[in-house]
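Hi everyone,

Forwarding the result from last night's run.
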Amino acid sequence: MERSGVITFQGSPLTLLGPALRPGDKAPDFTLLDGEMKPFGLKDLSGKIKLISVTPSLDTPVCDLQLRRFNTEAAGLPGDVMVLNVSMDLPFAIARFCTSAGIDKAKALSDYRDAAFGLAYGLLIKELRLLARAIFVLDRSDVVRYVEIVPEITDHPDYEKAVAAAKQIV
């Protein structure tokens, strides 16, 4: 499924591949890779509230700040709220970034292998093979409770709304 008119990059329209998830939808399962190339999936967070931050690439200033901000926010969230960051970056690059940036509360994961997360969550950018900037909050039963797809991928998400959505579920 192709969707246009949802996001732009520096004002130029892009095409997203996959469905448009909405609050109330059951979250699709996923398997990503952590910094050590180990599989990590939705099932690994069973019974937890999930705040999923999605970034195009941690090598860009906005993505860098987004993960750092959610890492800081994660420290103030209850223990049953897990903060994830998903990008198409290689697992080795993610591990290096997290070490140098002191990311210790949020879990950064890679969708580079087959873009299955991007396709399942409707975030794979056809023209760039990167993920659109987005935030999802899933409840303990993996039901989507909050969605933000940032219209211009060089802009920041609404951090306060995303954190408030996660806290509201607790």
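Helices lie at 61-75, 91-101, 116-120, 159-169.

Cheers,
N.
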